[in-house]
């Protein structure tokens, strides 16, 4: 029974993560690339910006959006990475949150 519940939950979160990735591409356009995470509820967003991921996370928090910065060694110039989670909000809220994130980074 537990295994079936886990499979069901994973299926739900994979679908939510896919939608989050699609919404991110819609909002960020060519300024971003999206990579789904292995866990099923995280999405890696790679952004064209001179800002480091720590600065993006700080600006996002000030705008009311939680993201996790990803720093793996020396970041590529102009390509910062952050993790987005689909677990803490409904899919209907993705676009508004992503627009706030976009404004925090680019405006």
Shape annotation: elongated
Distance N terminus to C terminus? 49 Å
Number of helices: 3
Structural class: alpha+beta
Strand order of the largest sheet: 1-2-4-3
Overall number of strands? 4
What can be said about the biggest beta sheet?
Answer: 4 strands, antiparallel
Unreliable stretches covering 5 or more consecutive residues:
none
Tell me roughly what share of residues is in helical segments: 40-55%
Mean pLDDT: 87
The SSE string, one letter per element, is HEEHEEH
Q: Into which percentage range does the β-strand content fall?
A: 15-25%
Oligomeric status of the shown chains? single chain
> Mind telling me the C-alpha Rg?
14 Å
Outline:
By secondary structure, this protein is of the alpha+beta class. The chain contains three helices and four strands; from the N terminus they run H-E-E-H-E-E-H. It has a four-stranded antiparallel sheet with strand order 1-2-4-3, covered by helices on one side.
């Amino acid at each position: 029974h537990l295994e079936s519940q886990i499979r069901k939950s994973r299926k739900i979160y994979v679908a939510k993560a896919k939608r989050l990735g699609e919404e991110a591409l819609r909002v960020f356009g060519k300024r971003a690339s999206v990579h789904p995470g292995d866990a099923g509820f995280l999405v890696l967003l790679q952004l064209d910006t001179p800002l480091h991921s720590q600065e993006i996370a700080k600006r996002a928090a000030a705008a009311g959006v939680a993201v996790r910065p990803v720093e793996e060694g020396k970041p590529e110039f102009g390509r910062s990475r952050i993790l987005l989670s689909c677990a803490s909000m409904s899919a209907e809220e993705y676009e508004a949150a992503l627009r706030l994130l976009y404004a925090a980074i680019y405006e």
